[in-house]
């Protein structure tokens, strides 16, 4: 049955036919081994370049979804002892296995707060630069976690992180600050509480995985909080398993033409001015229509005053004719 698909198999077959006149036996010309190794390389390179061109041509709404960061609650079950080297032994504890990867901070009353270096087991941790001396008597503690990676495939955050809307808490954004401010505040206090600030930081570059980012909170979260923000997705290449490209609801005709135009440019050497570059010439009007369509999809039907994400700092009287006084908790009391 003929379909209007825009997926891995259809794109491989379109580009394979355009470049080499290849036709699939059952699925696609690469999976069916109709294409040689060199032909398969040219086909996939054309598709990758075509997708790259499309995704960089506009600030597409589907590349900016709402993403979620969920914090871990502080842990304080059981008691601990600590030797002079910072080796922690717990009694009646089950330290979470993310204690190091989520940048755990262990706070010991009358001793201080110290970063977790290594998670060994549910009863053993190692602290970083421990200077508190040996704690030989069983002590209470609080283990909090303040650093979290962005969700997989998310390159960065565009908007500020906001607590999920609830009946008992107004939806208020956290304040985004430089990472050095978070470190300064952590040096003053690691007592867990409701986060009010965060910093977004790039991890050390990994040549095998590229750049990744994480967010660091202050205060260290005391409970599980669900925070949301608009994120920027990192587009990826399609495969026979991950077969659907991003944005096909809006971009299906554009993606096909972009991949074919890429084959014209990068394999056949025909730029948009070449008399036979039919796909390069066809791409421009399709792209313009797709951009307009995406703007319509991502725009409200009726527009009011938009003060932007920093409007909270202007004071409610600047954009409300009436005011509501909030005294319902969540560490906030005042006019909404």
3D architecture notes:
Strands 7-2-3-6-5-4-8 form a seven-stranded antiparallel β-sheet, with no helix packed on it. Strands 1, 10, 11 and 15 form a four-stranded antiparallel β-sheet that branches. Strands 9-14-13-12 form a four-stranded mixed β-sheet, covered by helices on one side. About 7% of the residues have low confidence. α1 crosses α2, α1 runs parallel beside α4 and α4 packs antiparallel against α5. It contains five helices and 17 strands. It has 336 residues and is an alpha+beta fold. The chain folds into three domains: 99 residues, no CATH class; 92 residues, no CATH class; 62 residues.
Give the topology.
Elements (H helix, E strand, L loop, with lengths): L7 H13 L16 H20 L9 E5 L8 E4 L4 E5 L12 E5 L3 E10 L2 E4 L7 E5 L2 E4 L1 E3 L4 E4 L4 E2 L11 E2 L2 H10 L8 E6 L10 E6 L7 E8 L14 H19 L11 H20 L27 E5 L2 E4 L1
Parallel strand pairs: 12-13
Antiparallel strand pairs: 1-15, 2-3, 2-7, 3-6, 4-5, 4-8, 5-6, 9-14, 10-15, 11-15, 13-14, 16-17
How are strands sequenced across the largest beta sheet?
Answer: 7-2-3-6-5-4-8
Q: Sheet bearing the most strands, described? A: 7 strands, antiparallel
Gyration radius (Cα, Å) is 27 Å
Structural class: alpha+beta
Mean pLDDT: 84
Number of domains: 3
**End-to-end distance, in Å?**
58 Å
Order of helices and strands: HHEEEEEEEEEEEEHEEEHHEE
Helical segment count: 5
Low-pLDDT regions: 302-323
Please report which band the strand proportion falls in: under 5%, 5-15%, 15-25%, 25-35%, 35-45% or over 45%. 15-25%
Shape label: elongated
The helicity comes to 10-25%
Count every beta strand, where a strand is a DSSP E run of 2 or more residues. 17
